[in-house]
TrEMBL record:
<keyword id="KW-0813">Transport</keyword>
<feature type="domain" description="ABC transporter">
    <location>
        <begin position="32"/>
        <end position="272"/>
    </location>
</feature>
<protein>
    <submittedName>
        <fullName>Urea ABC transporter ATP-binding protein UrtD</fullName>
    </submittedName>
</protein>
<dbReference type="InterPro" id="IPR032823">
    <property type="entry name" value="BCA_ABC_TP_C"/>
</dbReference>
<dbReference type="Pfam" id="PF12399">
    <property type="entry name" value="BCA_ABC_TP_C"/>
</dbReference>
<dbReference type="InterPro" id="IPR003439">
    <property type="entry name" value="ABC_transporter-like_ATP-bd"/>
</dbReference>
<dbReference type="InterPro" id="IPR017781">
    <property type="entry name" value="ABC_transptr_urea_ATP-bd_UrtD"/>
</dbReference>
<dbReference type="InterPro" id="IPR003593">
    <property type="entry name" value="AAA+_ATPase"/>
</dbReference>
<dbReference type="GO" id="GO:0005886">
    <property type="term" value="C:plasma membrane"/>
</dbReference>
<dbReference type="GO" id="GO:0005524">
    <property type="term" value="F:ATP binding"/>
</dbReference>
<dbReference type="Pfam" id="PF00005">
    <property type="entry name" value="ABC_tran"/>
</dbReference>
<keyword id="KW-0547">Nucleotide-binding</keyword>
<keyword id="KW-0067">ATP-binding</keyword>
<dbReference type="GO" id="GO:0016887">
    <property type="term" value="F:ATP hydrolysis activity"/>
</dbReference>
<dbReference type="InterPro" id="IPR027417">
    <property type="entry name" value="P-loop_NTPase"/>
</dbReference>
<dbReference type="InterPro" id="IPR051120">
    <property type="entry name" value="ABC_AA/LPS_Transport"/>
</dbReference>
Amino acid sequence: MQGLRETFRRDQVWPFLAGEQNKVDVSNQMILYVEGLNLSFDGFKALNDLNLYVKDGELRCLIGANGAGKTTLMDVITGKTQCDSGTVYFGQTHNLLTKDEADIAQLGIGRKFQKPTVFEEQTVFDNLELSLKTDKRVIQTLFARLSPSEIDRIDEVLAIIGLKELRFMKAGALSHGQKQWLEIGMLLVSDPRLLLIDEPVAGMTAQETERTAELLTSLAGERTVIVVEHDMEFVRSIARTVTVLHQGSVLAEGTMDQIQNNKDVIEVYLGEEAAEA
Ligand SMILES: Nc1ncnc2c1ncn2[C@@H]1O[C@H](COP(=O)(O)OP(=O)(O)OP(=O)(O)O)[C@@H](O)[C@H]1O
Ligand SMILES: [Mg+2]
């Protein structure tokens, strides 16, 4: 009985929300394994034998021209879209292709879409509280009062996203950049292991972009972060390893310098950007 009680308590106490069954086995350092992924839309190959391995704690940038398959890849990882063939593992044991979106979120994978979807009429604090309460790993009802540890968690997240001073402001009154940070905060309250972030700095001011770079850099290490971006200056400022997608496959992978000097990448992607600049 002792073991049962321990398990029960563990499930309720922050930060061990996930419980034993949701543990991610990263014993060989990788947190994400994507292999041989294929997906066609009416004969058009959006993902074409795609392979991607991401190390635990990495901050990985994913770049590639419009239509390269970046968002589609995130859709498959998070269970939003089913692929035709291939495998996706979270750690060594969780086969994500057998799980639905809610189960995948519960395992500790957070996704941020490009457009912020905060509750504009609610305060910054309330937005964070709402995402904490809709986290199915927390056993409580929507109307239950916040526990001291939950309030601490929200405070912690407010500090991380730099919105502590604006906690009582309505989210609708925030700048575009601040809304993006709030939405990242709404993922962070659930303490995800892996964050997938699609085009976070589009539409941001230069200063907001810089702060976002700092934010994402600070999140990596303890968490794994995969960022899709077109803004090359931003990618250069945060990237350690960059993966270039082209027509649904990985075209190149390496440091920003290696990528910028890669002939294939220059031809199909950076050439265009350089020509536009
Ligand atoms: N549900 C869908 N039905 C049909 N085609 C789709 C669907 N989703 C994506 N596609 C197509 O798959 C390809 C890859 O799209 P995806 O959105 O993944 O590209 P992306 O790399 O994210 O591009 P961008 O940089 O413009 O966001 C595109 O040609 C797109 O039109
Ligand atoms: Mg996209």
